[in-house]
User: What shape does this take?
Amino acid sequence: MPCLAPSAKFLLAARLAESGMLKLALAGPSVPARLYPQEHEVYRMTTPIAAAADALLQTRSEFPILEKTIYMVSHSLGAMPRGVEDEMCEYARMWGQRGVRAWHEGWWELPVEVGNLLAPAIGADPGSVVMVPNVTTAEQIVLSALDYPAHQNVLLHTELDFPSVIYLYQGEKARGAELRVVKSSDGISVPAERIVEAIDARTRVVAISHVLFRSSYLVDVEPIIRRAREVGALVMLDAYQSVGTVPVDVKALDLDILVGGSVKWLCGGPGAGFLYVKPELREKLFPRFTGWMGHARPFAFETGMDYAHDMFRFLNGTPHVPCLYAARPGYRMIQKLGVDAIRAKSQRLTERLMAWGSEFGIPMRTPADPGRRGGTVSFSVAEPQRVAEELIRREIIVDWRPDAGVRIAPHYYTSEEEVDETMRQLREIAAK
Ligand SMILES: Cc1ncc(COP(=O)(O)O)c(C=O)c1O
Assistant: This one.
């Protein structure tokens, strides 16, 4: 008896039959002859020949949702790998059959072990990444280890960072931080030069996004880290929108702190955030937001805090065990495919999306330069909410955000035909 009932295939077959796509899917190999499909052309499933040309498409069968939708929302919630079902069964088996012994049979170590699985995706060594519930928590742990002396109390961020962490920074004012907010002149980008200019001897921490969530602008962090180093400021990079689709190498960058999460490009589901701390920095940080998991001897239940010497020192209470199980298949997939190959494909498909956008005269709020672009393209259509909802009704899954428009993100499992079909439908809906 399988752990979860397999209903998706049955539903898909019914759906495809209903839409006439089943016939096409069964029709055998056919090569799309044109880059741009013609008006009213029937949507074609990815063919075996097209799939052979793009090795990453071989992962498609691992993602149940691709059987019934065009899934273009991996900047928000990456598709679930099939392996998550087994992981959840294994979690249930451990709890159900091993009971409390599960803590000593793997559960306690999971935050660091799963961090080790993620580490290669950011160029980190084993033992330098730990799992936490989300980015906001990861940043709070780090900030709680900082003081803001009057001569060096500036917390620098940009106005286009993710609001959740901005709210956190605003709270730091009560602890003596002075916020310095680097503005964007176009609502799309925050050029690195502008951030570099804003860093001075009073800067305590530079807390910025790697890829901006609205526009997918990729910040060139190297000069920023260099400048921060000169003035003795820490850099904490929110790499949520880059890890898994844009190569990140914490060692090559000499980065102090990296935070991210698994909901998006890593296809790891909610509740699996992560925190990298440069090993040389680790024992210089004493988070006030702490707990028994951060103690060197948690099971001695001492009343005085003595921080663990490894990445456990950044933990606090009981860990989010089921989420850590769920995160693993997505991480393994990234490891297997390699982020360089994913990035090359992402640049090709976002270029294709933008070529469509230009052809249809739809304004885009995403950098035209592929080197400065993450994995998403934001289309500035009128009534973005209506357009996104209608696309979703047609089983083309996207989202929309104020000041961004409709956000569309291909990932390693996306085919060129899906990109084309998405844009054709977008144009039709936006024109109404
Ligand atoms: C750049 C960035 N940072 C942070 C978050 C979310 O943070 P958290 O994991 O705390 O929910 C998002 C999510 O949408 C994001 O795009």
